[in-house]
Amino acid sequence: MNEYDGEELGVRFRLSPPFHIQSRKFIARSAELQQCFACWGIDGETKIMIDDLPPLNFRLEGPPGVGKNEIVYELARQLDRPLYVIQGHEELTPEDLALVLVPDAEESASGAMRFSYNASPLVTALRKGALFFFDEINRVPERTLAPLASVLDERRRIYSALVARDIAPPDELKRGSFRFCCAMNPEGAARGALPEYIDERTLPVIRIDYLPVEDLIAVLENKLVPPKELLDAFRKWYEEEAKTQLSTRQATTLVQYAMAVSRQKKASSLDTIRTASAQVGVKRKGDEAAEDPDEEQSDLEESAQ
């Protein structure tokens, strides 16, 4: 069911629906979770907001697949509050953060095409005093991030050029309960540093690294419930043969694929894990010695010239 807002601003817009969060058990990352609660001025035990300090707009940083998003989802679960999410990408525009004009199917039922304003998840979170998460924030063009500055300081408002108005929380209660956080992978292609004025407004940085093997095993056991012998084989392979650390996403894909393969052909659990690791692109120790023969031949030809 559509929900509308903004009449007191002189512009009516449709609010975004909250992000759907699956109900699941949260494993590990308790220290990082408590840091997030502290940044938002929320008591980690009672989940009560502490009013003596303004909340901080913390930033989660780490490689892909290590569980940054899941931490934010768990915050929303424990607080039992709606979460609104924007996924950053290179084509995002400033108006995508505020209001956009879209065809209105309900209003066009009479036959004439009509349009209405849709509020972004950010505007919706501001108006409702809810939780907001900006994922992959450093994939966004700098010009798109410019309107975000006024959201991240004491102004708590965003300007919409489409309607030439500032949009802010409707009252002090909503203003005080709004919470912002973001996440980024600072390395990799198509990613850059945040502009300084956004960087300084999204502190502190909470680093999310690869899980230690015991926590990784616990996550896999809870999420996939693999046979014990397959999980033991994964542990042995990871500790003795894996060339690099695995993200939670990589490990989950590997073990899930190994479970599927083990149902179709008979092989030892360790061999199944080895096969699965090769097919999902995870390198083992010693793989660097088995380079592509074409590349080796090219290297030989270059050295002979």
Explain the overall architecture.
With 305 residues, this protein is α/β, with parallel strands linked by helices. It has two domains: 4-207, Rossmann fold (3-Layer(aba) Sandwich); 213-287. It has eleven helices and eleven strands. It has helices spanning 30-39, 68-79, 121-128, 142-145, 172-177, 196-199, 213-224, 228-240, 248-262, 269-279, 293-304, and strands at 4-5, 13-14, 59-61, 83-87, 99-103, 115-119, 131-135, 158-160, 165-167, 179-184, 205-207. It has a five-stranded parallel sheet, sandwiched between helices. Strands 1-2-6-5 form a four-stranded mixed sheet. α8 crosses α10. The longest helix is centred in the C-terminal third of the chain and has 15 residues, at 248-262. The protein is elongated and about 70 Å long.
List its traits:
single chain, 305 residues, alpha/beta, Rossmann fold, 2 domains, five-stranded parallel β-sheet, four-stranded mixed β-sheet, 35% helix, disordered C terminus
> What is the averaged pLDDT score?
90
Q: How are the strands of the biggest sheet laid out side by side?
A: 4-7-10-3-11
CATH class of the largest domain reads Alpha Beta
Helix content: 25-40%
Specify the biggest β-sheet: 5 strands, parallel
What's the number of structural domains? Answer: 2
Shape: elongated
- Helix-strand makeup class: alpha/beta
Radius of gyration: 24 Å
First-to-last CA distance: 72 Å
In the CATH hierarchy, the architecture of the largest domain is 3-Layer(aba) Sandwich
